[in-house]
Amino acid sequence: MASLKPSHFFFVVVVAIFLHFHPVHSDDEEDHLLQGLNSFRTSANLPAFSKNKNAGCVAKKIADDIDDDDQPCNNPSNSRGNETKLSDHPKAISKCNIDVNTTSDVIILPVCVPKLVPTLVLTNFTRTHYSKYINDSSFTGIGLSSEDDWMVVVLASNTSAGSLANGAYSLVNTKVGLDHYMVLLLLGLIICLSQ
After folding, report:
1. Quick check: pTM over 0.90?
2. Residue 149 and residue 63: Cα distance in Å, rounded?
3. What is the C-alpha separation between 26 and 18, in angstroms, rounded?
């Protein structure tokens, strides 16, 4: 029986660790806002929002799009009338691999606050017309993302039309980050061939 060379063993261990632990990012601004929104809802005898992975993906894609469009942020109350339905963002639906039939009861709330001052961000969701969505008990899931001066909140409902369920599985559309695995595979191949 052939024995494993140390380099092969090292490669297998690195790949196993990399497959087990994929990067997780946590932004203080988003966590702070979620805590504030949940406190606001709890004080109104509503259940706290729970993080929804697909809503988080959609929020990230929309925040990236806002940043890519270089939309100016001049007014801390720039949320007036900007809520949209997820169906208005087909690119985000596609990139997050979400079934289109589960998006009609989803709302997107973008807010512009220079330097994302936490109290102002929270106020833009709880003291403006956005509060009707925050106070709506049919919204139970939440996704948050920020880019520069923009905070995007995506609210998912407790209905099948707002659950943000994944569409058909696609290896190309997975959010795992296949490029990371390809780099590891190529690195392992180079190590094996160099011996």
Report:
1. no
2. 10
3. 19
Distance between CA 163 and CA 165 in Å, rounded?
A: 5
pLDDT at 25: 38
Is residue 32 classed as helix, strand or coil in its secondary structure? helix
Q: Which amino acid is at 122?
A: L
> Strand (E) positions, 42-149?
50-51, 84-85, 107-112, 139-147
Interstrand relation of 50-51 and 139-147 (parallel, antiparallel or unpaired): parallel
Angle (CA) 189 9 174, round 5°: 60
Q: Are 173 and 157 in contact (CB under 8 A)?
A: no
Which amino acid is residue 3, in one-letter code?
Answer: S
pLDDT of residue 21: 46
Place of tokens 């923009």: 150
| Amino acid letter for position 59 | A
